[in-house]
Amino acid sequence: MVFSGIPFLYYFLPAVLVLYYSVPRAIKNKVLLASGLFFYFYGEQLLVFLMLFTAFWDYSCALLIRSAGSQRRAKLILAAALTVDLGILCYFKYTDFLIESINQLTGAGLPLLKIALPIGISFYTFQSMSYVIDVYRGEVEAQTDPLDYATYLTLFPQLIAGPIVRYSTVAAELRNRTHTIPQFAEGVRRFTIGLSKKILLANVLGEFCSAYAEMPEKTALLAWVYALAYAMQIYFDFSGYSDMAIGLGKLFGFRFLENFRYPFVSKSVTEFWRRWHISLGTWFRDYLYIPLGGNRRHWLLNVLVVWFVTGMWHGAGWTFIFWGLYNGLFLVLEKAAGSAFLRLAPDRFSALSSLRYLYSVPVLAVGFVIFGGEDLGAVIRQLRLMFDLSGGIGLHAEAAYYLRDYAWVFAIAVFASLPLGKTALSRLLSSENGAVRASVSFVAPIATAVLFVLCTAEIVDSSFNPFLYFRF
Amino acid sequence: MRKTPKSPLGSALSAGGEDGIRPNRSPDDGAHGGGASVRAAGGISQWATVLLFLILVLGGAVFCVCKAPDEISSSERRKLTPFPELSLRRVLSGRFFEDFEHYATDQFPMRDGMRRIKALSRYYVFQRLENNGIYLMDSSAIKREKAYSESTVSKNVELWKRILEKNFPSARVYYSVIPDKAAFGYAPSADFSALVRQLSSRAPRGSAYLPLFLSEESPLLGLEDYYRTDLHWRQEAIHPVAEEIARGMGTRIDSFDAYTVRSAGDFYGAYYGQSALPLPPDSLLLCESNATRNAEVHLLRFDEKGKGIRREKREVYDLEKWDDPDRYSVFLSGPEAAIEIVNPAQIRGKSLVVFRDSFASALVPFLISGYERIVLLDLRYLTGDAVELLEIGEVDDVLFLYSATSLGTIPLR
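^ inputs. structure came back:
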């Protein structure tokens, strides 16, 4: 079930809201647990038991770690927990990739197992792993109620496409949380903004990208427009989903951490990754990079290892590994260039610092092309189109027509990907003039409702509605 | 808790997220003028947000559950998904949920209204040129045909050749292609000229192309000759086209003076539903003459065993079809595999077989006056082998008349 579908918006969500707010506080977590299990069952049926096994396994391991008695024993239990978690993830996600790679290297011709990847397995496995590690480190108390732990892991707002919500973030709220009108209203607003990002921008940009794929003639200029449009499609798709998750969390009294922070204002790859999929970046930092030695020893190797794994996490394919290492390479280069880079173009806004966009935008655009390529061959063909100017840089009639068709969508997407709207709204809300602030208060609920209706209308009449981060 | 170190992998962010908008100073702090009223406005705003959302979501849910499912969408001219069959096997395989997804979307209350909202927002808010592949030009809805398939054209022409050799070896053969409405629009569309060139290079030997369309010297067709809300041409506008075809085949037909034009009523074409825009309807006009009134029209249908032929009497303008989702079907009863038209006023006149699509339904009534017998065959609903079973017999002329879309995108049978 996707958040941006009629079954979720007009069947599942209203039913869960009514049920959740009808039952006493003590039963609310059970309602959320049942809702999460049904939500997952709707998409993956019996694989819901795999998720429940992960929940039960890590819940049990955490309790055993707590009562282990010795550090060595605790470490062994932790190792067992992580081995099983990673084993399940690797079996479902990487077995066929491994067989395929062996076949390519040796020509062995081993048959593929054609294992279907359970939706969201990368997200919930990482969440569950972080819980066990945090218990081992003594950073959170082990949960004693198995149902509460299962509630956390199956919490439907963040179940299948993140953000990666750590147990420590919601541990207190699982026990005791408040439900207020301001929080519910903020949740509604946030959910609607996310839904609009997904439906009104990401899906439409996706239509452009599909049209691009079918165009018989492509020029360098068009190839660059595609790369930027694809980058924005991925951004609005994923950040839209995160907004919806955060908004839904608020409807049920939870506060999830932010997952995006206007990544397209970044003037370097390093900055970009501090603003993009923050929950994943911080997860790898805390659970892999720092344990490997972080900045203290052989950081170069640590960075490359982390980005190799980051690529693998995103998908079982060489393009993802290549993409991860591509990012890692630029992070290393930027760190090596260090202060010289900053002196040349300081962080604070200036004409000189703006020049850094001439570096960051193309590098990031190429990264998205690698990320979106069907295979390495397709990536190379697309990069050739972008950098080979011999085919001309102009636009043929069909491309010009498409650019005119999507011109406003591109303009709105660029505006929405920058913090301009947020800044303007904050200024209005902070205005000395009470009438201005009252006007904003008056318009906000109407605008939210209008956006919700517009999204519904789009869904009712649209067929293009995939979530790109589902299979990660 | 551990202190968060900086690293090149991203850092924990203390600031609010991109949409976590907070005023620099809360309206609640009373620091601004009119603090009480603004506080009240903020509170009302939050209540209003919650109430509007609950009305939309809960009200929508009640509507969704209570609304009786519709069988068809007349504006989209398609069947809507019914409630899926519920069984344990289908639930466990996930097929029930997949079908439910389609059901819930198809059966959403006020579906047409929602589709209209979407169309209006795409055209007027997002300034898009197209919605569902339809754009507007001079108040006419046009669908852009992206490309014709060379292999489909080749296969279709090979089928023509086989049919001719087997059934009509001695007939004079003509062919022509009707340009899509998109050929007159401003958006780039599939290359009609290239289609005609390919067709001419592969056409049956001895056949004659009737170069009627898009000729600069003789522009017989323009955008205004098509319905504004549909893909088809308007019958009252294409008599010159019929005359040109007849002339090409060495036949004389009645002049337009012989016809009286009468309105059958409002016509909302296929593009009306697809575009979902509030376009005004077309007027569906019928051109009647003694030839059309006296013609004996029979639908030729195979009996249940597929061997014998059943003949069903109809009229040139089949007004029983007026209540069909597609009112264009009043022209020669709409999509039919085989139709025979006999003109009793033409004794020992010529005979003609037309391999055609729906465009011919509006044009052939003009040809009736020039022939004793016309047989229309639609290879979208009739296989090439079945033509022989119809036992059409000797004919003088054979005309292949297809729209560019049919010829270039639909593999004929």
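The two ends of chain A are 16 Å apart (CA to CA). The longest helix of chain A spans residues 71-106.
thumbs up if we can close this ticket
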